[in-house]
From TrEMBL:
Gene3D superfamilies: Alanine racemase, Lyase, Ornithine Decarboxylase, Chain A, domain 1. One of its GO terms (molecular function) is pyridoxal phosphate binding. It comes from Methylophaga aminisulfidivorans MP. One of its GO terms (biological process) is D-alanine biosynthetic process. Its cofactor is pyridoxal 5'-phosphate. This is Alanine racemase. InterPro entries: Ala_racemase, Ala_racemase/Decarboxylase_C, Ala_racemase_C, Ala_racemase_N, Ala_racemase_pyridoxalP-BS, PLP-binding_barrel. Keywords: Isomerase, Pyridoxal phosphate. It is an enzyme of class 5 (isomerase). It comes from the Bacteria. Substrate binds at residues 130, 303.
């Protein structure tokens, strides 16, 4: 096996999709597979999640690639597009760019597409104030888009929670009320719930849910992990020990000598580094698992390697597997805490140097 390797479990992805359906049995599912399916490999994930009612990506290029790889499900482009040429390409490939700007409404009212766009979504700014048309302007936008002749009558309203990972936050209720009111006024289907809302806010499920992180077996909440929500990690990141050696008291390890031996110590070097996407913020903070035992990461993370204190794991030897995250012994949520970041970042920044090994599918 090539190291380092992200082993992607198809059965875990499908288990997690089933958990989405368990939590939101009456809602359609728009599976979020942007950013190379959160670093898991978008083509393999799209195949694993083909029971979805639709996919969502961030950008036109992601959607075009999926079509070129034979994906036929509806594909929603969350960031939308802003030029006539891009709208024409979206129409040709039956893609669904989200409308979130008045300028997009203006453009669609001034051009003629090769065929009307289908499966159309309007982003509502219900309180996050990032992308979206304000609730009071939605009905006007709908009227103009319908009159343009460039969109069929298949519309939905979409929005995004800003604080759904903060369970009980009153701002979530305010956003939900905006969308419920618009649903009542327009009679259109609504898509609001992300992973955290799927798990914690059943009243927000409505017509469509839009899970991302939970599909990959990662908890969207701080201080919890996947197992607490009966999710299975879809990625196991592993590498291999490539060197093992002894050092004396006072000898330093790595760039800058940030770690010094306080006793005679055994050190291992593993083949992974920030060039693979393993964060430098894990320097002198994280742990790995070797032969079932946790071992500290010591010294600065290098581009290609990390150093590990093997003093308490005396049987470790060159060629041993090193688990970076992804099993019950060491979950990605915990590693993210060591790095002072969120699990999204750790999995999405893994570089193309990391081999993806798809299993059980």
């Amino acid at each position: 096996m090539t190291f380092p390797t992200a082993t992607i479990s198809i059965s875990a992805l499908q288990h997690n999709f089933a958990r989405v359906k368990h939590y939101a049995p009456k809602s359609k599912v728009m599976s979020v597979i942007k950013a190379d399916a959160y670093g898991h490999g978008v083509i393999a994930v799209a195949e694993a999640l083909k029971q979805s009612d639709a996919f969502a990506v961030a950008r036109l290029s992601e959607a075009v690639s999926l079509r070129h790889h034979g994906v036929t499900l509806p594909i929603v482009i969350l960031e939308g597009v802003n030029t006539a040429d891009d709208f024409q390409l979206a129409a040709e490939l039956e893609l669904s760019p989200v409308i979130h700007l008045s300028s997009q409404v203006d453009l669609l009212s001034s051009i003629t597409l090769v065929q009307p766009l289908r499966f159309n979504w309007i982003m509502v700014d219900s309180g996050m104030h990032r992308l979206g048309i304000r609730p009071e302007d939605i009905e006007t936008a709908l009227s103009r888009l319908t009159a343009s002749g460039n969109m069929n009558d298949e519309f939905g309203l979409m929005s995004h929670f800003a604080n759904s990972d903060l369970v009980g936050d009153i701002r979530n209720q305010h956003q939900l009320e905006h969308m419920q009111s618009l649903k009542h006024k327009t009679g259109l289907p609504v898509c609001l719930s992300n992973s955290a809302a799927v798990l914690a806010y059943p009243e927000s499920h409505l017509d469509w849910v839009r899970p991302g992180l939970m599909l990959y077996g990662i908890s969207p909440f701080a201080n919890t992990n996947a197992a607490e929500h009966e999710l299975q990690p879809a990625m196991q990141l592993t590498t291999q020990l490539i060197s093992v050696y002894d050092i004396n008291i006072g000898e330093q390890v790595g760039y800058g000598g940030d770690w010094s031996a306080k006793q005679a110590s055994r050190i291992g070097v593993a083949s992974i580094g920030y060039g693979d996407g393993y964060s430098r913020h894990l320097s002198n903070r994280s742990e790995v698992v070797i032969r079932g035992q946790r071992c500290p990461v010591i010294g600065r993370i290098s581009m290609d390697t990390i150093c590990i204190n093997l003093t308490d794991c005396s049987k470790a030897s060159v060629g041993d597997e090193v688990l970076l995250w992804g099993r019950s012994e060491l979950m990605v949520e915990e590693v993210a805490e060591y790095a002072g970041t969120i699990p999204y970042e750790l999995v999405t920044v893994l570089s193309k140097r990391v081999n993806r090994d798809v299993i059980d599918g």
